[in-house]
Amino acid sequence: MPRKQKLEEEVENDGFFDDEPPKTINPYEVLGLDKSATTDEVKSAYRKAALQHHPGKVNPTPTASLPN
Fold it and tell me: Side-chain half-sphere of 14: how many Cα atoms within 13 Å?
């Protein structure tokens, strides 16, 4: 079987292009806001979420104290 045909069959059978429509994400729900939120409320909630999930800003879990 030619390589191109094999790759096309793999793509067709991978289940990626199912008949289901893509899921949508409601940003207001993610940020915990009402749709009537002001621009400042959206900015504030976004910045809090960004800090909460930023890899450099995540607080490490407390560990047992190490012996000296």
Answer: 9
